[in-house]
Amino acid sequence: MDKLRNNWFTESCEMWPGSTFSFEVKEVLHSEKSQYQDIDVYDTASLGRVLVLDGIIQCTQKDEFSYQEMISFLPLCCHRNPEKVLIVGGGDGGVAREVEIDAKVIEVSKKYLPFMAVGFESKKLTLHVGDGFEFMKNHSQEFDVIITDSSDPVGPAISLFQENYFALMKSALRPGGMVCSQAGTIWNDLELVTNTLSFCRNQFPSAAYGYASVPTYPSGQIGFVIGSLEENKKFDSPLLTFNKEDEQTMNLRYYNSD
């Protein structure tokens, strides 16, 4: 079935029945079906370039920074000394990810989303293409922080929202380690948020839920669950804070220490 109608793309999903989000497409930059999912990249009239996987918007050039900054700095600024970080999930490069199951997403992002894929150029990055589950099974007690930058729980990402995944992350952490995972929004799927937070709390002595504004995501928000192996962790009091000069130097556009 044609994905566009009169040059408009419309996102719809069983996870948010009765709601859609549409944007006008100037050009289809890329469209293919990989081993795992449909991958589309559009140049749009109002959002810049947009990455869509299995018909669901993953990121847009206009607002990707709010999600990327929050899922990264929420755990990194709360950890005492995050020397080794594992990033599991999509391959757009916005969080300088380390393990990605679909090599095609990485390839497409490097070509069409250079404003995000710049993360792949970091000398600190070691990229692994494969299954995040299998990777962590072979890396016990190795990481200070694990960030799961996943798509919604549809298709290959479903397993990243189960309790056994949180248990596996726990086993891959060093003492005092932390995790942060995409966890949906209360406005569209309160059950998903409740269950994901519960799974995190069952595995970590400290856990919480936070959210960020992302206009092109369902309901205009996206949430995160964050867990720590430390008891009584105060996630709203970061150990590392940024002043205005730091924010400008790092080109932060959404996250701040407040």
TrEMBL record:
Transmembrane segments: none annotated. InterPro entries: PABS, PABS_CS, SAM-dependent_MTases_sf, Spermi_synthase, Spermidine_synt_N, Spermidine_synt_N_sf. SUPFAM superfamilies: S-adenosyl-L-methionine-dependent methyltransferases. One of its GO terms (cellular component) is cytosol. GO terms for molecular function: spermidine synthase activity. Keywords: Polyamine biosynthesis, Transferase. The active site is at 149 (proton acceptor). One of its GO terms (biological process) is spermidine biosynthetic process. Residues 6-229 form the PABS domain. HAMAP family: Spermidine_synth. This is Spermidine synthase. It comes from Operophtera brumata.
